[in-house]
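Please check our next protein.
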Amino acid sequence: MHAHPVLRLPWVVLVGVVGVLIILAGLVMMVTPGPGVAAVILGLIVLSTEFPWARRVVSPARRWFRRAERYGQRLRTELLRRHRSRRALRRRTAPGTVD
């Protein structure tokens, strides 16, 4: 789309309209039931594919998401380690087993 000069403008307009509609739907969902914040962030991500100002707005959210993802992975690893150690301990001390 970016290489063809005739299709560039309609593509940018389409991306802008879709992004704004998603953001507006997100704003409506903030007062009604629904994932409002997620929709606003998604709309900004759509806009950031074509507009540098939206890229600058989204970059802190991307950093936050990466930190949250790393935290979730650490938490999952720790919980799995605890679960496995408890299960191994239960197997060693199970009633009816002969030492």
Q: What stands out?
A: The first helix runs from residue 5 to 31. DSSP finds three helices and no strands in the chain. The CA atoms of residues 13 and 50 lie 10 Å apart. The chain has a mean pLDDT of 89.
